[in-house]
Amino acid sequence: MKRTVTIGMTALAVSILLLFFLNLLLGSVTIPAASVWKILTGGSVDNDIWQNIVLKSRLPQAVTALMAGAGLSVAGLQMQTVFRNPLAGPSVLGVSSGASLGVAFVVLLSGRIGGIALSRLGYMGEVAMTLSAIAGAMAVMLLIVWVAQKVRGNVTLLIIGVMIGYVATAIIGVLKFFSAEEDVRAYVVWGLGSFSRVSGDQVTTFALIMAVLLPLSMLLVKTLNLLLLGDSYARNLGLNVRRARNWVIVSAGVLVAIVTAYCGPISFLGLAVPHLCRGMFRTSDHRILMPGSLLAGASLALLCNLIARLPGFEGALPVNSVTALIGAPVVAAVLFRRRKEEFSE
After folding, report:
1. What is the mean pLDDT of residues 236-257?
2. If you write DSSP's letter for every residue of 229-246 in order, what string do you get?
3. Taking the model in full, what pTM does it have?
4. Is the CB of residue 97 less than 8 Å from the CB of residue 337?
5. Which of 120, 191, 226, 257 is at a distance of 20 to 30 A from 251, taking alpha carbons?
6. Is there a contact between 161 and 144 (Cβ–Cβ < 8 Å)?
C-alpha cells in the first residue's frame, strides 16, 4: 500500500513538472525548448517577442492553472466528504453562483447605470470583476455558515445551497434581460472560465493567497477522517461535529471563492479529481487523498489548459468545455470500475 502511494504521488509530481513545461513550450507561436529554458533561467534570448510570450502570458497562465486546479480539487474532496455525496462539488453550496451574481451586478448594471461598459475599462474592469466575485462568493458563504448553525442535517444544508444557486441564476437571468448586449457578452465570456485572465501583479497575489490557503486546508485531514466515520462515531471520539462541518465548509468555500473570482467558474475539476484519486490510491484515508487530490487537480488543470491552447486553434478554447470533456469520462470510468468490482465481490 505504502509503495503504491509513493509511486502514485511521484507520478503525479512528475506529470505536473512535465505539463508545466509543455504549457510554456506549446501554443500558437512555436518556441524552441532551449529558448524557453534560457528565458526561465534568466539567460538572454535574441527574440524579445518569445520572452514576452513566455514570461507575460504562458508562465502566469500555467501558474494560475496549477493553483486553481489544486484548490478546486481539494475543495471538491472536502465537500464530498462532509456531505457524504459523490456528486457534491465545489459549487454545490452556491458559492460559485454567489461569485457569478456579484460579477453580474457589476458587469450587467455598469452600462445601464453608469453608461460605460465595464469591459471597456481594461485592467480596472478586471479588478472590479475580481472584487465583485469575491464579495458575492463571501456573502453566500457567510449565509451558508449561518444556516449551518441552524440546521442539523447535511441533506437540508445541501438542498438550501442548491436553492441559493437557483435564486442567483434567476436574478442573473433578469439582469441579462435588461442589460446592454455588450455587457451580456462580457459576462458570458467571464462565465466560460479562463486561466489566462490572471496576469501581472494579479497572478502573484493569486498564487500567494492559494499558497496560504492550501496548506491550511491540510490541517482538516484528521477532521475529515473522523467525519467519514459518521456523526455518532465522530461525536463519541470527541469531535464537535457541527463546528467541524462549519470549518470544512468555510475552507472549501474560501478556496472556491478565490478561484472563481480570478478564473471564473471552472466546472468538473472539483467533482472529477477526488473520484480519480480514490480509484488511483484505493483508499478513503484523507492523509493520502488530500495531497493526492491537490497534485492530481494541478496536473489535470495544466492538461486542460494545454489542450485549450493547442497549436492550430486561433486564441484559446473555453476551459470549461475542455474540463467537461476530460472530467466526465474520468468520473464515468471510475464509477463503472468501482461498480464492476462490487459485483465481482
Report:
1. 85
2. T-HHHHHHTT--HHHHHH
3. 0.86
4. no
5. 191
6. yes
